[in-house]
Prior knowledge:
Elements: H1 13-24, H2 41-56, E1 60-63, E2 69-73, E3 83-87, H3 101-117, E4 120-121, E5 125-129, H4 143-148, H5 154-159, H6 168-174, E6 190-196, H7 201-205, E7 209-215, E8 217-226, E9 230-231, H8 243-259, E10 266-275, E11 281-282, E12 285-294, H9 297-315, E13 321-330, E14 333-334, H10 337-350, E15 354-359, H11 364-371, E16 374-379, H12 395-413, E17 415-416
Parallel strand pairs: 3-5, 3-6, 6-16, 7-15
Antiparallel strand pairs: 1-2, 2-5, 4-17, 7-14, 7-16, 8-12, 8-13, 9-11, 10-12
Bound molecules: (2S)-amino(hydroxy)ethanoic acid and manganese (II) ion (2 copies).
(2S)-amino(hydroxy)ethanoic acid binds at residues 133-135, 141, 361-362.
Organism: Rhizobium herbae
GO molecular function, one term: hydrolase activity
Amino acid sequence: MVAAPGENMRVNADRLWATLMDMAKIGPGIAGGNNRQTLTDEDGEGRKLFKTWCEDAGLTVGVDKMGTMFATRPGTDPEALPVYVGSHLDTQPTGGKYDGVLGVLGALEVVRTMNDLGIKTKHPIVVTNWTNEEGARFAPAMLASGVFAGVHTLEYAYDRKDPDGKTFGDELKRIGWLGDEEVGARKMHAYFEYHIEQGPILEAEEKTIGVVTHCQGLWWLEFTLTGREAHTGSTPMNMRVNAGLAMARIMEMVQTVAMENQPGAVGGVGQVFFSPNSRNVLPGKVVFTVDIRSPDKDKLDRMRARIEAEAPGITEPLGVGCSIEAIGHFAPVTFDPTLVTAVRTAAEKLGYSHMNIISGAGHDACWAAKVAPATMVMCPCVGGLSHNEAEDISKEWASAGCDVLFHAVVETAVIME
Length: 417
Ligand code: HGY
Ligand code: MN
Ligand code: MN
């Protein structure tokens, strides 16, 4: 007889919070958040601590050729495919303490609670830390889960370069986390990801749990503009080939395109490189990435087409060369209805307020959804702020979402007496 977990089963909120705070000590930022970028020494330190915690919880840790970590709790049926539960430990350069980390350590808390309660599941549980979810140091985002899902090749991933020209493959070897498992060889029964919302909706609606039905799609368009280096003082305005001005006008155009596609579209630029980046030299080269997103695939693709069509009308009159490369993309994702229902049912059983939500940010779950039934659980974050060191959540939100994750995972993994 399969016993359903009682409403009274909850995770250990204090242990979860203490674990989050211990991880936050690794790769501290300068304003209370974290700078634990992928494949840095700090990332390596965080991985080591996470591995120790997993082994202390009786898990066996495997690592694949993208450095992704898989910590397995055995099930009662060795033939049954595992339920994977994970997210990412890497952060933005000025990241918060919870983006990704809450999902990895929340998954560990689920296992720790199963151990406390002596719960046996038919399906094994695999706590997962995906390499390079952020795409901050090595574009694109969600790189390791993308290779796992067959979207990128291993060679493509290994060749990705950071702003200093270091390759992903070299850095993975350097920090000692190049594993031996073939990427994507593991098969999943289901995948769950617990994550802060990174937007304002749940807090504004006063809902504790986000039942994530979809995730919006994304394009990252890398522009390379070629101007002419010249003196900012002695070069007459009519003689300038001003790539910086072209960039500013393209940014303005992206803003217009996004605003003309409301509701349900965003567009902006987060990263710009000027060369030679000297305050009294007009840039010879400007490289920047346009980030556009929408839950509506047609709208997203129309926005991309319009931006690419309108760019030459900006650069050509200025004599600026322009090339555009799509360096990141995923289509809008619909998560698995059965797993979404498991999350909603868990929230209802536990008495937590909840609402359906579309994820504004991308997650490894988006690629996991290509190879297995997948879904997410979300909790609010203060002011909807994320990718900012001031990112903040309450301990209550953290544990409520983890309670829901626990019940949804256990229900899916099927308890055996
Ligand atoms: O870009 C994203 O949505 C995620 O934070 N990598
Ligand atoms: Mn994240
Ligand atoms: Mn992020």
